[in-house]
Amino acid sequence: MTFQRKDLERLADIVSIAADQEIMPRFRKLGEGAIREKTSALDLVTDADEAAEAAIKTSVAKAFPKAAFIGEESFEKDRSLLNRIGDAELAVIIDPVDGTSNFAWGLPLFGVLAAVTSRGETIGGIIYDPVGRDCTFALKGHGAWAKSEGGATRDLRVSKPAALDQMTGTASWYLMPEPLRSNVAANLAKVKASFAYRCAAYEYRLVGSGLVDFSLHYKLMPWDHAAGVLIHAEAGGYSALYDGSPYAPTKLAGGLILAPSKGNWQALRDALVG
What we know:
By secondary structure, the chain is an alpha+beta fold. The protein has helices at 5-23, 47-63, 72-77, 100-104, 180-187, 200-208, 222-234, 262-273, and strands at 35-40, 43-46, 68-71, 91-98, 111-118, 121-129, 134-139, 144-147, 153-155, 168-171, 193-195, 214-217, 238-240, 256-259. It contains eight helices and 14 strands. The radius of gyration is 18 Å and the shape is globular. It starts with a helix and ends with a helix.
């Protein structure tokens, strides 16, 4: 499937317009009933999530009429949507507000994630920051780059390999089941520092830009990870599931570690997951 830089930028325009019109006007202005729980107090949906996804879906249908559309909120109504990722010649996967808890709490740590796949392979990725109005991109085989609101661009590179006790990173250990949860939480003392932003968009921006060395995840819904894994890979990083197999947007379990190199990945896997 041919998907070019101009197509990726067109999708980014769609995302940014939806963010301007549906997300930011609601930020810190969500009224009563505009925030709802899905499965827990940390798994939320807001009017902004639903309105932004609807706007993006409409625009994607016009810009890419043959593309399958898989959105996080659409999935809540039709769980068969995930089955389309492996077969669709072109699919657009959207998380309209990643970091919904932060958004709902008035914290400016949220973003829009968009991935483009072909036959189950990620070929394009976008992370858009509605607050800073900047965007992170990757196009398979063509690198990863960031673009500021003013239009300036810079190529992305992951951090250089480092010793385990000198690495910093993000870790979503709180989403893991026991006993893995307790083991990983304790083992994180072996690295220099770890953080959890409750927002994959921000965590992938950090690791893809080389600002942190690693990122550790457990849940693997494609709208959370497909774009970020490609950005990290195109910036020179190495990632794999806990068992060493490669990530794919059709894989929904198995955990995920991103690192600067295969050697660093193995060191993190041995030290943190065991």
